[in-house]
Amino acid sequence: MSNTVPISRIKRLAALHGAGKNPSVAYLARVLGLCRGSVRRYRKLIEASGHSFAYFATMSEKEIWRILRQQAAEKEPTGRQATLSMIFPEIQGQVQDGSKNLKQSWLQYRKTHRDGYEYSQFVRLFQLWGKQRAMKTTACAKWHVAHLPQEDLSALRKWRNSNNRTRWAKAVALMESYKGANLASLCVKIEKSPRIVKRWMAAYDQKGIAGLDTARKRQSPPAKLAEMDQKRDRIIEILHETPQLHGINRASWSLDSLVQAYKAQYSESVSMSTVSDYIRSEGFTLKKARRVLTSPDPDYREKLKEITSILSSLREDEKFFSVDEFGPFSVTIRGGRTHTERGTNRVIPQWQKSKGRIILTAGLELSTNQIRYFYSEKKNTGEMIRLLDILLHEYADQRCLYLSWDAASWHISAKLKKRVAAQNNMADMTPIHGPIVKLAPLPASAQFLNVIESIFSGMARAVLHNSDYQSVGECKEAIDRHFEERNEHYRRNPARAGKKIWGKELVEPYFSPSNNCKDPKWR
Question: What's the predicted TM-score (pTM) here?
Answer without folding.
Answer: 0.45
